[in-house]
Amino acid sequence: MLRAMSETTPPEQKPSAGQEGQWFGFRPVDPEAKSGLVRAVFDSVAGKYDLMNDLMSGGIHRLWKDTLISLVDPKPHQTLLDVAGGTGDIAFRFLERGGGRVVVCDITEAMLRVGRDRSVDRGLLGGLSWVVGDAMKLPVAPRSVDSYTIAFGLRNVTHIDQAIAEAHRVLKPGGKFFVLEFSTVVLPVLKEIYDVYSFQLLPKLGKLVAGDAESYQYLVESIRRFPDQASLAKRIEAAGFASVRVRNLSGGIAAIHSGWRV
């Protein structure tokens, strides 16, 4: 049963750095269990994932992803590692914009199956690898990729700092790190509207469209538990990245964080 709006209003205080693994949305959990819970969510919504992003962003996620790829600036000699990118949205954009090779890594095999099917439908059969793997322990060699992207995936990772450190490990010196993620709304009027939309409408839409209200409830709550823009930027810098920048999108509903691997 869905919780009432008064019971799902997010607490003002986000988890302390390094404590995100103790929460599955607003529910306290054993960090050892979180990855399995996240995998179950995406097993459930894999077939409707792109529709889910349309619902959560009003379709604007497509423009946000276009902006991300413009910042990545694909080149024929570049290799991109796209983490939590199972359905292929970022990978396809990278290749279609002239990028060289993409490794798509996702913890959920069901998401990768959707991505592989979509790649066949698009005729994108070359330059793509699909790998089951955890963002916190990537099956990728050190200093082996030119760019790393993670879009709408970092907030689902049990230990965020570990995932950022792994990104640093696999990037070549001079490589670029990008996070596209739902973030903290910076416009007060927009925040109020967004909260009502998120907590009152999205789970109901999830139940209607995907037959799964609880997964959508978790996804809404996970956004509110994610670090704000400045906090995440500091953690990226602490992992050793240089020239860390933040670009707010749609008033902070989403943001792109980027940094150089030195």
Description:
This protein is an alpha/beta fold and 262 residues long. It has a single domain (48-261), classed as Vaccinia Virus protein VP39 (Rossmann fold), CATH 3.40.50.150. Helix content is 45%, strand content 21%. The chain has helices spanning 5-8, 31-45, 49-57, 61-72, 89-96, 109-122, 160-170, 188-210, 213-225, 229-238; strands at 23-24, 27-28, 79-83, 101-106, 128-132, 145-151, 171-182, 241-249, 254-261. The strands form 2 sheets. It has a 7-stranded mixed β-sheet, sandwiched between helices. A hairpin with a 2-residue loop joins strand 1 and strand 2. Helix 4 (61-72) crosses helix 5 and helix 8 (188-210) runs antiparallel to helix 9. The radius of gyration is 17 Å and the shape is globular.
Note the total helix count.
10
So, CATH architecture?
A: 3-Layer(aba) Sandwich
Helix-strand topology string? HEEHHHEHEHEEHEHHHEE
Number of individual domains: 1
The CATH homologous superfamily is called Vaccinia Virus protein VP39
> CATH class, anyone?
Alpha Beta
Radius of gyration: 17 Å
Strand content: 15-25%
Biggest pleated sheet: 7 strands, mixed
Question: How many strands in all?
Answer: 9
List the helices and strands and how they pair.
Layout: H1 5-8, E1 23-24, E2 27-28, H2 31-45, H3 49-57, H4 61-72, E3 79-83, H5 89-96, E4 101-106, H6 109-122, E5 128-132, E6 145-151, H7 160-170, E7 171-182, H8 188-210, H9 213-225, H10 229-238, E8 241-249, E9 254-261
Parallel strand pairs: 3-4, 3-6, 4-5, 6-7
Antiparallel strand pairs: 1-2, 7-9, 8-9
